[in-house]
Write a structure and sequence with these properties.
There is one protein chain. Helices cover 43% and strands 15% of the residues. It has helices spanning 18-29, 41-60, 66-74, 99-110, 128-132, 166-178, 194-210, 216-226, 233-240, 242-255, 266-273; strands at 10-14, 33-37, 76-79, 90-93, 118-121, 141-145, 155-160, 182-187, 287-289, 292-294. Strands 3-2-1-4-5-6-7-8 form an eight-stranded mixed β-sheet, with helices on both faces. It has a two-stranded antiparallel sheet with strand order 9-10. A hairpin with a 2-residue loop joins strand 9 and strand 10. It has two domains: 3-187, NAD(P)-binding Rossmann-like Domain (Rossmann fold, 3-Layer(aba) Sandwich), CATH 3.40.50; 194-290, N-(1-d-carboxylethyl)-l-norvaline Dehydrogenase, domain 2, CATH 1.10.1040.50. It binds 1,4-dihydronicotinamide adenine dinucleotide. Residues 14-20, 38-40, 43, 94-97, 101, 105, 122-124, 146-148, 240, 244 line the site of 1,4-dihydronicotinamide adenine dinucleotide (NAI).
Length: 297
């Protein structure tokens, strides 16, 4: 066990998309330095702009002190070279959900960072053990699974791969609490806890719609207003985006050797193929105008 795991001050985030920028927000607001890198320079600039807008809104609403916002933004370093993350004690990867791309990145990171730097993945569906297999030091690789939108979704899964050092996971449990979130420890199985249980709601909702039992809006209303979920499955898939959600459903299905209860639906596949991704494309299971859902008649 390395005691260096216990004192995380600087966090490198790879991937400046929806998840990377959300994690960056809670990290800088909880006193950490963030080195944000994306292989698309425009994504880094977009993440920076989005963070500034979000913090300015929080200040306007009186939820954040103006000085605290300025100090937090001063802790954000925008990087156009992966090597700029070399001094971090923790790297959180939030890039495209593809095992080969994540493995290549982790291999590259190991050549850049110190030997006691923890390498964490925000993957929703890939095996932490498989990602770690690309590393010379697989014991430092841990799953660190945040949910979207990160500042509001308080639960975070910390996942031990088969070869993870439990001290690395312990450090992420402590860090999560420091960030004001609630960590839950999970073992490395497809979907971990939330996507294992939660996927069933999406795939079952899709099956009900496919069988013509009820509309998307009717199924959502039942799950939201009767079952007590914050959103129904179609509202949630529209928020996440089918470009993210459908590959996760397919990956979990295949990892469980085509177990029928995880089978994804052609209703979602055809929407993805047609670019009806959800909120981000203006149309998914619902229509969106100016970022707001157009209520079905
Ligand atoms: P996104 O598509 O919004 O952002 C991904 C970013 O990674 C993009 O800016 C892209 O330019 C960058 N990128 C891709 N390949 C890269 C590479 N090789 N090196 C550096 N940057 C690279 O994706 P999102 O939604 O932020 O998801 C990221 C990860 O988080 C995925 O693994 C996803 O499964 C996981 N996740 C997503 C959730 C969601 O609801 N969106 C929830 C929980 C986890």
């Amino acid at each position: 066990m390395s005691s260096a795991y216990l004192d995380i001050q600087s966090i490198g985030i790879v991937g400046g998309g929806a998840m990377g920028r959300g994690i960056a927000q809670i990290a800088i607001l909880s006193g950490h330095f963030v080195y944000l890198y994306d292989n698309n320079a425009e994504a880094v600039a977009a993440a920076d702009a989005a963070l500034r807008t979000t913090l300015a809104t929080l200040v306007e609403k009186g939820k954040l002190d103006a000085k605290a916002s300025e100090v937090a933004l001063g802790r954000l370093k925008l990087c156009n070279d992966l090597a700029d993350l070399r001094g971090c004690e923790l790297i959180i990867e939030a890039i495209i959900e593809r095992l080969d791309v994540k493995q290549a990145l982790f291999g590259q990171l190991e050549k850049i960072v110190a030997g006691d730097c923890i390498l964490a993945s925000n993957t929703s569906s890939l095996s932490i053990t498989a990602i770690a297999a690309a590393c010379a030091q697989p014991e430092r690789v841990v799953g660190f699974h945040f949910f979207n939108p990160v500042p509001l979704m308080k639960v975070v899964e910390v996942i031990d791969g088969l070869r993870s050092d439990s001290a690395a996971g312990d450090a992420l449990m402590a860090l999560t609490r420091k960030m004001g979130h609630t960590p839950v420890r999970a073992r490395d199985m497809p979907g971990f806890i939330v996507n294992h249980a939660g996927r069933a709601m999406n795939t079952e909702g899709l099956r009900i719609a496919q069988e013509g039992v009820a509309t998307f809006a009717e199924i959502d209303a039942i799950m939201r207003d009767q079952a007590g979920f914050r959103m129904g499955p179609f509202e949630l898939m529209d928020l996440t985006g089918l470009d993210v959600s459908q590959p996760v459903m397919e990956s979990i299905y295949h990892q469980f050797y085509e177990e029928a209860r995880y089978r994804p639906s052609p209703i979602a596949a055809v929407r993805l193929a047609g670019g009806l991704l959800g909120r981000k494309s203006g149309e998914g299971f619902y229509l969106y105008r100016d970022g707001k859902k157009v209520e079905p008649e």
